[in-house]
Amino acid sequence: MPAYDDLMAFQRTTQALDEVAGRTGWDQETFMPRGAAPQRAEEMAALEEVLHARRTDPRLGDWLGEAHAPDAVADANLREIRRVYARSRKVPARLAAELARVTSLAQGQWATARAHDDAAAFLPVLAEVVRLRREEGQALAEGGDPYDALMQDYEPGGSSDAMAAMFDAMRPRLVALLARALDAEPAPHVSGTFPKDAQLALAAEIAGAYGYDFQRGRLDLAVHPFSSGSGLDVRITTRVDEADPFNCLYSTIHEVGHAAYEQDVDPAYLLTPIGKGASMGVHESQSRSYENQMGRSEAYCGWLYGRMRDAFGDLGVGSERDFYHAVNGVRSGYIRTEADELHYNLHIMLRFDLERALMRGELEVAELEAAWNDRFAEDFGVAVDRPSNGFMQDVHWSVGLMGYFPTYSLGNLYAGCLMAAARRDVAGIDDALASGDPSPATGWMREHLQRYGSLRMPAKTVAHATGEAPSAEPLLAYLEAKFADLYP
Q1: pLDDT at 1 over 90
Q2: Given this model, what pLDDT does residue 400 score?
Q3: Summary mean pLDDT of the chain
Q4: How far apart are the first and last CA of the chain?
Q5: Nearest CA-CA partner of 388 in 364, 367, 372
Q6: How many angstroms separate the CA atoms of 39 and 292, rounded?
Q7: For residue 82, is it left (φ>0), alpha (ψ between -120 and 50) or beta?
Q8: Which of 118, 349, 391, 440 has a C-alpha 20 to 30 A away from that of 466?
Q9: In 2-92, which ranges are continuous DSSP H helix?
Q10: Is 221 helix (H, G, I), strand (E, B) or coil?
């Protein structure tokens, strides 16, 4: 198969260069000196020029025309190369490089402006990001919906209409659960002294128990926690608030879900198109199931209560049950990453509607803050007090990730399906979680989903793991059972 072999050899170099670009982005958000931002932007643009040239190389078209797939792995590799080649050819090299340069600069400007609650300092560069992403979306859509076209970067095969239908189906039952919880007695609060080093030590211990391999990764701090890399180098970050240990611990578990997916892909797929997660929705299914359905379960909270008392002393709550209630307390708040499971999808619905309007030209950047604040007050019943608690809280728009947000809710949906199947197939998951051991559940994920990488398209990846087509019902049934127990 000379055409296929030549194609895969070329692709391996492209994948390796893409990993280098990812590592450069990781450095920018962790250790890069702030003064290096202008030079880093030029470096990122240069890397993107090289990558874009390789992704649109005319030889790819020739190889794709001649290559034949002898098996499912080769067929999947050809599918992914063909998809990226077709998309990349629609985007001018100039635009790809400019997006890389501007979003690199914008990330640093967002972090500084967010720290000072200075919306005016952020809006000009955000407007430039939006302008460039609109141009890209229009080039990709070729007369269709630019937002749908951009979504394909994160959820191949997805559509905004399908996402909107998913939200419409979920909203009534979520709102009913929220009303019940918010009318009940408030959950207890954990309080105490939670030093940074002790939080990070416990976070590392928990990450290891969840299967994160520190020989192929590391844990660092970032303004907005994230996971980066694939294969043999997969890095995670978290953040620390000494008044709120859950911020650090559950951010870490969340990012471990992403990282475990990448670390546990079949090693034979290393530096090939299928050697990574199938989509961001499937990725989020791992992080959300690790964080919520395992990490916030009553069984695991019982273990964590004792472990945190050992690490920090008195927690301000007097029983495992109160601790479990505190971990899962339902309350309106500004920050998406700190939201309880009932409010979380409302955060995503807000962002989905706003960014879709931005990409379609129905909303301008100058109107974004007011639109956010109005919608937040309507959905959450709380007035936004400052930009860092509002439209500037997330890093995503500064780095151009328009179309990414709906995959968080899709990941919740997938997680519901996957955990229902894991509990069906594996006895004793809760007994193990009660001893601080998530491995029966994470092992099921590794065996049934993670090892396959992008061998299948996203929905088929989940269906193959569970034996059923994905639906919202398992997630909604899980939430109704959990929160009816917590808020009877």
Answers
A1: no
A2: 96
A3: 96
A4: 63
A5: 372
A6: 40
A7: alpha
A8: 349
A9: 2-30, 37-55, 58-66, 72-89
A10: strand
Residue-wise pLDDT tens digits, 338-380: 899 999 999 999 999 999 999 999 999 999 999 999 999 999 9
Per residue in 45-80, pLDDT (tens digit) is 999 999 999 999 999 999 999 999 999 999 999 999
- The pLDDT, as a whole number, for residue 343 is 95
Q: Which of 45, 29, 32 is closest to 110 using CA atoms? A: 29
Under a CB-based contact definition with an 8 Å cutoff, are residues 203 and 248 in contact?
yes
Query: b/e per residue, 378-402, with b = 16+ CB within 10 A?
Result: ebbeeebeebbebbbbbbbbbbbbb
Whole-number Å distance between alpha carbons of 331 and 177: 12
Other Cβ atoms less than 10 A from the Cβ of 9: the count is: 9
Confidence of residue 481 (pLDDT cuts 50, 70, 90): very high
CA-to-CA separations, 461 to 33, 50, 364, 448, 469, in angstroms, rounded: 40, 31, 37, 9, 10
Question: Token pair 């409010």 is at which residue?
Answer: 343
The full length of the chain comes to 488
- Asked if 233 and 216 count as a contact pair (C-beta separation under 8 A), the reply is yes
Residue 255 falls in the annotated catalytic set: yes
Q: Which run of H or E residues covers position 230? A: strand 227-230
Please pick, among 80, 255, 262, 338, the residue that the annotation labels catalytic. Answer: 255
pLDDT tens digits, one per residue of 254-269: 999 999 999 999 999 9
Kindly give the pairing relationship between strand 233-238 and strand 227-230.
antiparallel
Q: What is the pTM of this model?
A: 0.95
| Closest listed residue to residue 252, CA positions, set 345, 160, 337, 353 | 337
